[in-house]
Amino acid sequence: MAQVQVQPQNAMQGGPNGAAGGGNQFVPTSLYVGDLDPSVTDSQLYDLFNQLGQVVSVRVCRDLTTGRSLGYGYVNYSNPQDAARSLDVLNFTPLNNKPIRIMYSHRDPSVRKSGAGNIFIKNLDRAIDHKALHDTFSSFGSILSCKVSTDSSGNSKGYGFVQFDNAESAQKAIEKLNGMLLNDKQVYVGPFLRKQEREGSADKAKFNNVFVKNLSESTTDDELKKVFGEFGPITSAVVMRDEDGKSKCFGFVNFENTDDAARAVEALNGKKFDDKEWYVGKAQKKSEREHELKLKFEQSMKEAADKYQGANLYVKNLDDSIGDEKLKELFSPFGTITSCKVMRDPSGISRGSGFVAFSTPEEASRALLEMNGKMVVSKPLYVTLAQRKEDRRARLQVCVLNVEAFFLLGQYVGGITYQRCRIKIL
User: Fold this and answer.
1) CATH 3.40.50.720: does it fit domain 308-389?
2) pLDDT of residue 389
3) What predicted TM-score, i.e. pTM, was given to this entire model?
């Protein structure tokens, strides 16, 4: 589709009305625009989308430090009809020679993260792009997102993802297209599974040795063998004991085949024996347990960080009279605030800074744009995205190395020799 250039209107500077709304509801006037070429500007995005209706605001999201495009942005319309028309007409339109990918911006992250209606397609012909995939699956229902995975050169990796707005449409697509030929290649179409779920399902059928704990002190090897023997032939069953022969209340059962071991875990985990609820699972080496615990810990930390990534704002230059409630009142017009706090010293005096966390990055982005530099009680606010201490230290360390490298060269400017210096990281 040819791009028609039009002069930007005053709406370019419009506020967040097109995407504002109470709570975490779905806003049908706000569009997410992905797969943007790094050179695409706000003005280009405005010019393209304003052809289909009155645009209230646009934004290409950028890295705060480098200013480089993150490859996506948002367009807000004044009414849902224009947003729907743009989604239908402009999706996969080339912008700076790269097709853009459009979908509604859902302010409720649970819609995206639930995985409901999300399917995985593999063994795709390399010629199938985002649009071809979208056209193939659109007959089964309303599509929220559609993407063919590509490498750094933009070439298809042979698999992709489609998320429908409901599980029924996804199931219909799976039933009709799984095993069918697309461009003379038989494709696999199935429910999308997260990495942890894929690894978990793969592990379930790959063990013979079962670990059981929370046993009664009176449980014997024979009783253990009798209970587990109902699921298949057992090569050994032992209750672990200390030097005095007292039960440690855990043991191991080894099956001849993996299917029997998996069925035993499925049936007995959580069951009560002698008023004791058993834990039954795959027996692991100490190194495996430590590795698994480490992965779980790292995953939980990552999920916690991702949850607030881009949604947590740092505010400073606050007047001493501003408390938690006043800070919340200042930022609440931009969305749902999950937490809000003014930092204070041990004596309760304001440090002049604080944090405001929103329910979505989009809300935080709007607040940042509107509130940074705004005069509040005769002082201009400084608002930016909050960073973890480790991230700040990493960025500062890069600055230290760059400064040291420059000054060690002994550059002469205006007759002054700059010697080696260091920046103290706070």
Assistant:
1) no
2) 59
3) 0.40
Superfamily of domain 30-198: RRM (RNA recognition motif) domain (3.30.70.330)
pLDDT at site 356: 92
The mean-pLDDT minimum among 19-28, 44-53, 234-243, 365-374 falls in 19-28
3-state secondary structure the chain: CCCCCCCCCHHHHCCHHHCCCCCCCCCCCEEEEECCCCCCCHHHHHHHHCCCCCEEEEEEEECCCCCCEEEEEEEEECCHHHHHHHHHHHCCCEECCEECEEEECCCCHHHHHCCCCEEEEECCCCCCCHHHHHHHHHHHCCEEEEEEEECCCCCEEEEEEEEECCHHHHHHHHHHHCCCEECCEECEEEECCCHHHHHHHHHCCCCCEEEEECCCCCCCHHHHHHHHHCCCCEEEEEEEECCCCCEEEEEEEEECCHHHHHHHHHHHCCCEECCEECEEEECCCHHHHHHHHHHHHHHHHHHHHHHHCCCEEEEECCCCCCCHHHHHHHHHHHCCEEEEEEEECCCCCEEEEEEEEECCHHHHHHHHHHHCCCEECCEECEEEECCCHHHHHHHHHHHHHHHHHHHCCCCEECCEECCCCCCCCC
In the chain, the percentage of residues whose pLDDT exceeds 90 is 36
Mean pLDDT taken over the chain: 79
Question: What does the pLDDT read at residue 108?
Answer: 55
